[in-house]
Amino acid sequence: MILAEILFTEYYHKYVTLEVDNLTDLLKENINVTERDCYALCVPYCGRDGLLEFAVLSIGPSWERCTKGLKKKKMLGIYTMDQVANCEARIADPSYAMLDKSLAFLDEMDDGWSEDILETRKDARLDEIRDVFYPDVVYTGVIMKNYIVEYRMRITAIKGPFLYGALDEEPENDIGIHFGDPMWALPYVAHDGMHLFALFAGDELSEDQKAVREKIIQEMNRFGIGFSGFSLRS
User: Fold this and answer.
1) Planar angle of CA 228, 230, 233, nearest 5 degrees
2) Beta-carbon neighbour count of residue 128 at 10 Å?
3) Which of 90, 119, 146, 175 is paired with 16 by a 20 to 30 Å CA distance?
C-alpha cells in the first residue's frame, strides 16, 4: 500500500519498511549502498517544526532482508514525508534490535512537546482530517453564512472538551478570523466520519461567549469529560 494511504496512527512511532528505490543513495555518507539496496526500514516521528519525518534504521535488498546498518548506533539518515509519501510501505513487527536503536531516539524527538500534543498524535479519530505532512494540523469547520467551511488548524492544546489551536491559513473570504487566531473546536460525527467544528474562534469574543466557553469547560471537567473522552476522578 502507498504510505500516504495508510492512516497516521497505524504507523506513527512504529516500524515501516519502504520501497524507496534510489533514495537510499542519500544515505551513502553513513553506510555502503549498493544498487540492490532499494528498501529502508524507518521509524516515523514529528520533527521540531511538526513535519512528519522518517528516521532510517537500516536498508536492504527486499522487504524481508532490510537489516543493513541496524547495528549502527546512529540513524542512517532522515526522510521527510514529501520524499516518501508515494512509496510502497509495509508495517514491520519490531525486533529487539529495532527497539534498542529507536526508543531513545523517539524519546528525544518527543522531548519538548506538550503532553496534550503527544496525546492528540495517538488519537485515531483525527486521522481522516489530518494534514498528510503536518499531523498536528487538522481541518476544522467554521460557519460561513449557511454552511460550514473547513480550514487548517494547528493543534496547540486540549482545553476541557475542546481541541484548542490556531488558524493555520489566511481565509480567502472575510469570515472574521485570520491566520494565527485561536480556535476552540469540538468533534462531531457526520455520514463520512468524524469532523471538528470551531464553536468559538478569534480574539474578539464577546464577554457572554467567553463566559459560555468557560462554563462548558468547567462543567465537562466536573464530570471528567475531556476531548479524549471520560476520565476517572476520585
Assistant:
1) 125
2) 14
3) 119
